[in-house]
């Protein structure tokens, strides 16, 4: 594997993990806070995070970590070693403790919540606001889709980005096409057919508004399930 391929794996892992969110941005803010406060009890945490980032960004080392983790098809999962949620939580708590007045604390919390919502893309549709009844903390609709895909032998899935990300979180045994550079064109069925053939997919999830059962039947797909927003096909 040459240097450009090593960098490509690292880049894909980063963009697949961070997506449109602000996870890594908040981590760097937290690291900056730890650097300027320089508190002895948090020094080990700071050192761990810095070395973790260096390992994940260094060609050769990062790719070795990916192989050892066994996540060759889900590079994004290796970012779990950074424990971003825990680190940001520690820093935010420490910062709030040192704010003198209650009013200022409330202002900071409100700003933090707004930043988090921005990172989520300000999604307030029903599927993002629904009550989650499963331990995986993915939408119930995607959970239903995942349960149906379990009946397909060796599922290789092409799906909208939101669905694809949650399917991978639910079960890494699903080969889900995902990441930067993914081509998924629901608006053009002929192009979508070329994409499913190119990726070698035997399962397809599309938004209901683009459904055309006659077309999908003609290219070898059969509808196996549908939810409020999605149609599920398999070969």
TrEMBL record:
<feature type="transmembrane region" description="Helical">
    <location>
        <begin position="106"/>
        <end position="124"/>
    </location>
</feature>
<keyword id="KW-0812">Transmembrane</keyword>
<feature type="transmembrane region" description="Helical">
    <location>
        <begin position="45"/>
        <end position="66"/>
    </location>
</feature>
<feature type="transmembrane region" description="Helical">
    <location>
        <begin position="78"/>
        <end position="97"/>
    </location>
</feature>
<feature type="transmembrane region" description="Helical">
    <location>
        <begin position="15"/>
        <end position="36"/>
    </location>
</feature>
<keyword id="KW-1133">Transmembrane helix</keyword>
<keyword id="KW-0472">Membrane</keyword>
<protein>
    <submittedName>
        <fullName>Uncharacterized protein</fullName>
    </submittedName>
</protein>
